[in-house]
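Quick look at the format.
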Amino acid sequence: METIDLPDPGPGEVQIRQHAVGLNYMDCYFRSGYYPAPTPAGVGTEAAGVVEQVGSGVTEFEAGDRVVYASGAPGSYADLRNMPADRLIAIPDGIAEEDAAALLMKGMTAEYLLTRCYPLKAGEFALFYAASGGVGLIAGQWGRHIGARMIGVAAGEEKCRLAKQSGYAFVIDRTREDVLARVKEITGGAGVPVVYDSIGKATFETSIKSLAPRGVFVSFGTTTGAPPPVEAALLQKSGSLYFTRPTLATYCSARPDMLASATKLFDLVRAGAIKPSIGQRYALSDAPSAHRDLESGKTIGASLLIP
């Protein structure tokens, strides 16, 4: 860790005393260089805290406001930070700062995946990998709220139990079950209309084969490496499939879209339809250990770094 003197916030900026930093797999991508970032640069894209100062031209926030963010330049691994005000979201009353930091990025990811990338409908099947992870647990609850029949994939008895409690109608234990065979069994051989795949290389073939004709393959992560290049002929021969590689940055780049996504999430949280699941807390100085745990699959639910 390094200590620096932080200047006052500039025009359009807000200075935040950060109380909780969200850990996301994207942080590992930036740290490793898989996602390019300008250097020198910090790590981390999500945090919650309290406004200490506002720069000139900022009218939406003032000192004492509770705020959270999940976008902008990397650098959330800090106790004090200057951030552009247009990337901040006010934390609604009744939601704790730690919960906001654990929910926002993962919850907005679930929102755009299930309601905009492929608008999931009541009664539809959907296959979701890493069902016991931070995004997966929220997606299970969101899918249940929609009325979808969520099929989750997790590893081990404890993670499968947690996924089942979080809205998945069916949970496949990939350590002892054949994922494709179970998907076919659950769907009566038809396959699913959509696969939400955050794993990448290791699950590509299974995802393709799990889809029903004209199904949608949503690849939104690559924890085992990038999937192979997708040939048009493969999509044709596999049932006129669709393949997309979306990002939260695109779906929430405009402030109105970001605010609408966060509002949907926090409304469901306050209604009790989605509950935060913080599985691990680490001191900010222990960020290397947190990354190792995340990459090795040791974590359950959301993880926080506490400055």
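Next, a different chain entirely:
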Amino acid sequence: MSEQKMVHLIIERQDTHNGKSYTEEFKVPLRPGMNVIAALMEIQRNPVNAKGEKVAPVSWESNCLEEICGACMMVINGKPRQACTALIEKLEQPIRLKPARTFPVLRDLVVDRSRMFEALKRVKAWVPIDGTYDLGPGPRMAERDRQWAYELSKCFTCGACVEACPNVNEKTSFIGPFAISQARLFNTHPTGSMHSHERIEALMGEGGIHECGNSQNCVQVCPKNIPLTTSIAAMNAATNRYALTNWLRK
């Protein structure tokens, strides 16, 4: 009878939001088609570390398990990515799991991504409508515009681009690549464009587009292959035009 293959995980843990981090090793049975979430669920079912000690189950977040919600983003073998699509058999072992430390760590692999949602509010990443009465069908978009806008709409706020960006850290207020791309998306929407000046002014403020260092790490790690650097370039041009137009009007 062949010996059961095992998955070796080295997980960076933290018991409280202000606690000290430490690493703990686990070994769980390998199953065909297993992903990182399945390995974490195995630890949750039987929380015993590689030394045979009973420990607290590892905390993490997940929801859809099909790369739609973005909740399970963590750093896997040094790269921010979704744990649900990280297949064990395609990862080098030992598999090292760490929380995305661009964000405050709440416990183990669970982080607080409020920073991202605050950034979306700053750039008004929505189409404002009153909602108290039927506005009827909205304006149509040309198919060519709809196709590339749809690519931008795939963002699910996972935070991988923010984790990979060297300009996002506790010392800066940079809103991040995702927010710039969402500003572009809603500025080109027929209805959303009515508030384009507010989004551009937000990008020109503190922590705005001028703090982008153009490292292009974001586009390398985006799980949806969103053209983030293209959006950054487009919005950089838009802010320059806006600033120049305002200057000429004086």
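The radius of gyration is 21 Å.

See the schema section for token definitions.
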